[in-house]
Design goal:
ABC_transporter-like_ATP-bd, about 325 residues, six-stranded mixed beta sheet, ATP-binding, alpha/beta, single chain, nucleotide-binding, globular, 18 strands, five-stranded antiparallel beta sheet, AAA+_ATPase, binds adenosine-5'-triphosphate
Amino acid sequence: MLVLEGLQIGYGRKVLATLPPVTAVAAGEFVCLLGRNGQGKSTLLRTLGGFLAPVAGQVRLHGRPVTALRGVERARRIAVVLTERPQVGALGVMELVEMGRQPHTGWAGVLSEEDRRIAVAALDQVGGAHLAARMVDSLSDGERQRVMIARALAQQPDMMLLDEITAFLDLPSRVTIIDTLRRIAAEQGVAIVLSSHDLELSLQTADRLWLLPGGGRFVDGAPEDVALSGAVGSAFDQENLAFSLDSGRFESAMAAGRCVHVEGDDVATLWLSRALRRCGYGLEGNPDRAAHRIVLAAPGRWRIDDAMEASTIAEALDVLSMRRETC
Ligand SMILES: Nc1ncnc2c1ncn2[C@@H]1O[C@H](COP(=O)(O)OP(=O)(O)OP(=O)(O)O)[C@@H](O)[C@H]1O
C-alpha cells in the first residue's frame, strides 16, 4: 500500500534520516516509530502524509505520490492525529467526530444515516461513547485525544498517521487504544504508523518497529529483531540507563556490575526480581555469568548461594517479607 522510495527526510540541507532504497508497508500493518526527542519522528510522519516534501526520494500510496494528492482525495486516504490541542471553538464531540465523514459526503456535505452510524461506532471504538454530548473544549487531554482518534477512524482512511497520541492517556487507556488500533489495522486493512515514546508497549504490540537512532540512520524490523540487534540499546542507552535484553525493559545502568540470577518458578520470582532491580541489582538469566545466585526454595523462602553480599541482598528481600532459609 505504502512505498517509500530512496527517502531522505529533513529540512533544506539538514537530513535527519536516510531510509533504505525501498521500504514498503502493507495494508493492515501496525508500525511503531521510535526515537529520542528531535530525531525526526514527526518529520517522517509529515513526510509520509505529504505535508512536507522529502529531501530526496518519494512516498507513494497505492502507487501515487502523496504530494500529488489534494484536498478531499488526501482526506479520504490519509488520517492524521497529532497531540496538539485542536482550535475548534464551540464544537460538540459528536460534531467533531462527524467531521471525519466530510471527505465521503457529497458536494452539499450532508451526512447520511450511514455516516452518522459510522461516527457513533468510531467514538464507541475508542471508549468515548459517554462523551458524545460534551463540548470539545470541556474535555480533559486524554478524553480529547480519544475523540481525535475517533474522528480519524470515522474518516475510514487507507493510512493513519498518529503522532504521540498516547502521551496524555493513562496506562489502561493506552493499552486499550493501541489494541483498538491494531485490531482496526488488521480487520479493515488500514496501514497505521504511530510514533511513540512508550518503548515497552511498542515492543509488545507493533507488527514492525521503525527506529530513528540518530546519525541519519533508520532501522526497520520486527520488534524482537530490532531489540536483539542491539539497536534499541544504542538508540536510548545513557550513562545511568540501559535497555536489558533479559527483561525487555530499561534498567538502571548502576546494576550492571551487580548481577544476580534468581531461580524459582513461583510468581514471587518476578516480584523478587523487580525488588532487586529497584535496589540496584541487575538480573542475569545465565547463572554462570551472575555474581550471586538467589534461590527461591519454597513460597516465601529464599537462600543466597554466595554469602559475600548476603546482607545487602537481604535488604532487598526484606521488601517482600520473605524468610531466609539457612543453608
Ligand atoms: N520546520 C523546521 N525547520 C527546520 N528544522 C525543523 C523544523 N521542524 C522541526 N525541525 C527540527 O528537526 C528535528 C526533528 O524534529 P521532529 O519534530 O521531527 O522530532 P521528533 O523525533 O518528533 O521529536 P519529539 O520526540 O521531541 O517530538 C529537530 O531538531 C527539530 O528542531
